[in-house]
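Repro:
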Amino acid sequence: EKACELAPEHAAAHWQLSEVLRVLSYRKTAPFVDGDLVDLSKNHWETGHALQRPDAGTAWVYLGRALLNEQRWLLSKDPDLFWESLVFIECALLLNPDYATGWAYLAHYHRLLNNLQIALHASDRALSIDPADVAALEQRSAILSMLGRYGEAEEMVDRRLEQAEEWWPVALKAYIELRTGRPELALEHIERA
């Protein structure tokens, strides 16, 4: 906040503050976000964007804005926000076509909109750029499991779990084990998730 006060014409300060506010807006109870912080985050993002358009080095700004739309969706349940998120991700990829995490989130939003073949292609592109990208591994494993391609999904989730054991990939691993007839293993993973 201080940086924005000292240099209100500095776009990056507004973008950074927008990101901080977005992260701080998460809550543990429904609706799982603080609406006031979400609004403030969006205002700072828009201020920064009005001052300067992102370039290849700041393509992440568009990813942050797309993620902010997910929080806005929690408050409104407006599905158009996911389509808008796709536009923001496309902007990031136009600026930086080798942005693996951007491709992963393109897959994420297409998955949320049930465009699974497009999501699969985008996750493949992300992993071709960075085979260890956490977001790409998560999205690829989720998409493959939605398509019933459990063997491939398990391979992806195992690669993701090699990086860090967090609740989401552990829960997906349990889902895959359950769907492939291994309920005992699934229960072990559910207890860990």
